[in-house]
Amino acid sequence: MPINPFRNKKIKQASVLYISSIGAMFLGFLISVINTRYLGKVGYGDFKFIEVLFSFSLLFSTLGFFNTSTYLIAREENSTERKKIIGASLLLVLIASFILALLLIIYTLFFYDGHLKSYILPLVLFVPVVILNFSLEHLLQGLNKIYLLSILKIGPKIIFFVALLLLTFLDFSLVNVLLLFYGSITLIVLSILLKVKFIIDLKALRQILRHNRKVGFPIFIGALFGVATGHLSSLLVSHFNDNTDFGYFILSLTISAPIGVMPTITGSIMMKDFVDLKRIPSKTIKTCFYVSIIILICFLVFLKPFVLFFYTEQYTPVISLAYITSFGFLMHGFGDLFIKFLYAKGHGKEMKHATMGVGIVTLIVSICLIPSLGPEGASIVKVISSFSYLSFAYFYYKKIIKSSF
Question: How far apart are CA 90 and CA 198, in angstroms?
């Protein structure tokens, strides 16, 4: 009997995850309003620079192990074995934390010559939390713990937002904002970790290491080219311009991110189903497309009055940037949907080729456009890289489903 991807349980899970994701983005918007007004253009750019730096560095420390863990968990029916895989993943969190902390310290001491050095080094203490958050986001998808995943997405935003409101009556400084930001993630991550049952077993660790060569490591290599170059294009705006332009660009990404959320969430919800499905149901793709188009049209209509009302005229440059990046997020969301199908099938090699292709395209157009066009060039890069991401993902998706018939 074929699996119905829109049965009641899936509808409930999709609704909860979608609402939490949209809620997290809305809170992210409110948070950006507070931060831009109290930190100013330069301070907001500094805050986002540090956040992106940690995310960018994260890619170099995971080696694809958490992707492999998710793949193994999604396919494992025995609850005891799943707990062992989770326990092995937590051991890998400790190893990855050491690697990332070392990378950040080396970069800050020997390569970074900006004014944020005194902010970055103390934040290295939060590295295990950043890694654990990344790990849990993957593991909860494999476990199909969608409600916990929803809490992981929106929980830190709720705490951070409330804390910022209180901070407006106290000392609203960059250092306090950074501490509240990573402190909020810490509270939610640790509370969710208490809900996850695991068993420490070295055999499971060896199992992850063995499968990582086929699944996780190829994804990791691809991510270095794909995701890393995406972060790199953002950092290039800061390098060739300043953190004010960097803040404008990142704010445009924050505002336009909801455009692609529907297909991305659908891919997360259906990941365990994809293990058995031969292809993504056409109804799923059509539903994602129609909903996403409606969201895009509403976004384009209300963007300008939205930005002018909440951010004031000094953030007018964000409007033109967000018009461009919204189309990038639409294509990237559908790329995520097809990539999740490849992920569930264990096609790490194909995922590597797809993300490497995206990375090469992103790197070339970033070098060509960002030095001369600044944040406008970065917005165009977002569209081009997202189109290439969707194209590569769809190409390998079609190739796989043809071979399965």
Answer: 9
- Quote the DSSP letter at residue 168: T
d(CA 10, CA 18): 12
- Please name the residue that has the structure tokens 């390098």: 239
Contact 34, 168 (CB under 8 A): yes
Q: Measured between alpha carbons, how far is 51 from 23 in angstroms, rounded to an integer?
A: 20
Core vs surface per residue 117-127: b (16+ CB within 10 A) or e: eebbeebbebb
Reported as a pLDDT band with limits 50, 70 and 90, residue 2 is: very low
More confident residue, 229 or 102: 102
Q: Which amino acid is at 170?
A: L
- Give tens-digit pLDDT for 274-293: 877 888 888 888 988 998 99
| Residues 6 or more apart whose Cβ sits within 8 Å of residue 113 | none
Residue-wise pLDDT for 206-257, tens only, equals: 888 888 887 778 777 777 766 666 666 666 776 666 667 777 888 888 888 8
Please, what is the average pLDDT of the chain?
84
Spatial CA neighbour of 188 closest among 147, 146, 145, 159: 159
DSSP 210-258: HHHTTTHHHHHHHHHHTHHHHHHHHHHHHHHS-HHHHHHHHHHHHHHGG
Report the distance separating Cα 309 and Cα 405, nearest Å: 54
From 6, 21, 337, 254, select the one nearest 150 (Cα to Cα): 21
Cut 0.85: pTM above it: no
Residues 6+ apart with CB under 8 A from 334: 260, 263, 285, 288, 289, 292, 390, 393, 394
